[in-house]
Amino acid sequence: MTILSRLIYKEIFFPLIFSFIVLSAILLLGRLLPLTGLLLRSGIGFSQVLHFILVLVPTFLLFVLPLSGLLGTSLAMVRLNKDNELIAIFAAGISPKKIFTPVFVVGVCIWILTFITGAFLLPKAKTVAHKFIYQISTKTLTRGIPPLTFVSPIKGLTLFVNVSKAHGRRLKGVFLQDARNPKAISEIFARKGEILTSKDGSCIILSLKDGTLHQIDFSQDSSNIIKFDSYILKLYVTLPSKGKSRGEMGLKELIQDAQNPNTSPKQKKRLLIEFNKRLALPIGALILAMLGAPLGIKFGRTGISGGVALSLSAFIIYYILLVLSENLAEVGMLSPWISLWIPNILFAALTWWLWKKIYENGPLLD
User: Fold this and answer.
1) CA within 20 to 30 Å of 51's CA: 28, 95, 121, 254, which one?
2) Which of 161, 192, 188, 162 has the alpha carbon at shortest distance from 177?
3) Are the beta carbons of 142 and 157 closer than 8 angstroms?
4) Alpha carbons 351 and 366: distance in angstroms, whole number
5) Alpha helix locations (H) across the chain?
6) 185 by DSSP, 3-state: which?
């Protein structure tokens, strides 16, 4: 390894790692803050919270890794350009290939990490996170419901009680909205209720007495009002098996489900979109890392703030194109095999053009 290569690796490493840590921390806080109340009410220990945090990290790495690679290579070249080191390198007759090679190696590493995340880590992490949130959500009910407070222990389930006794397990004046199935929403008003736990601890039982059930079925465009003496709602501590969502499937599972003759055309399209997205994003991470270097070389005189702004702008444009590509595939205007690769094709062309200009003109702007 030459001295120049070591210098470039060193310049890329620090902004890349710093960007990765900062971006991960911001996104992690964004995920944890809405769950803070739920985590506190569940009474789980620090080790479980730490485990949950580690599980959450892979869920956003598909976006953190490409952006970190882009910022790392861009800011490295900005620093070298700002201190006139790039001009000295090119003036000494050193080929741009000496810069291209370390940047390409870093890009390949980012591509490998992003692919491993999307193909293996992300499906498992989403499955574990989903189960964990469901479990702590149901367990919060065993700790009781505070009075005069809207509580949503599970997504789609909202509770409100006027009076709670016995540590919030005996209730009076209960309102419950069950919107877990958006096509059939139920609203329940009960004079009293009680929170129980099954003998084997597998489910939480909400026992309601003397109330009214108002059910709206949007699929049938109908509604019913039922008066009851007793109503039992079971919430399983272990998430009932209902099949995996797209995000929880591996690449092989996505293709197998898409090829299943029982899969509806709409679901097949969504599975293929997810499959192509998992493959396109790692390639996009490589392209973005390769794009960052010429951006920093050509526009490095703007300084660190300018380099960050330029890199973020490039990533935002890439992400907008990716979302538009998903929508085009979703509505059937383009095949997922084509649509999801459009951002990569456009950015690959831009990256090739910028590197071509560097080979022709060096770090100077045209």
Assistant:
1) 254
2) 188
3) no
4) 16
5) 3-32, 36-42, 46-56, 61-82, 85-91, 97-116, 122-142, 251-259, 265-299, 303-330, 336-339, 342-361
6) strand
- Nearest-Å Rg of the Cα atoms of the chain is 27
Q: Write down the pTM of the prediction.
A: 0.77
Largest distance between two CA atoms of the chain? 89
Q: Which residues pair with 187 in a beta bridge?
A: 177, 214
- Provide the sign of the torsion angle of the four alpha carbons 43, 137, 149, 190, taken in this order: negative
| Phi/psi of residue 360, nearest 5 degrees | -85, -40
Reported as a single tens digit per residue, the pLDDT across 100-148 is: 889 999 999 999 999 999 888 888 888 888 778 777 766 677 777 888 8
Q: pLDDT tens digits, residue range 190-225?
A: 999 988 877 766 678 889 999 999 988 887 788 889
C-alpha distance from residue 91 to each of 1, 88, 356, 361, 363 (Å): 21, 5, 18, 11, 10
234, β-bridge pairs: 205
Q: What is residue 229's DSSP assignment?
A: E
Among 359, 358, 360, smallest CA distance to 300 is for 358
Query: Which is higher by pLDDT, 130 or 347?
Result: 347
Give yes or no for a contact between 78 and 300, defined as CB atoms under 8 angstroms apart: yes
**What is the three-class DSSP state of 212?**
strand
What is the signed CA dihedral for 19, 21, 24, 30, rounded to 10 degrees? Answer: -100
Contact 122, 81 (CB under 8 A): no
Token readout for 12 is 């890329």
| In the chain, % of residues over pLDDT 90 | 37
Query: Which three-class secondary structure state does DSSP give residue 149?
Result: coil
Phi, psi dihedrals of residue 104, rounded to the nearest 5°: -65, -40
Please, are residues 340 and 283 in contact by the beta-carbon 8 Å criterion? Answer: no
Please name the helix (run of DSSP H) or strand (run of DSSP E) that holds residue 362, with its range, or none. none
3-state class of 49 per DSSP? helix
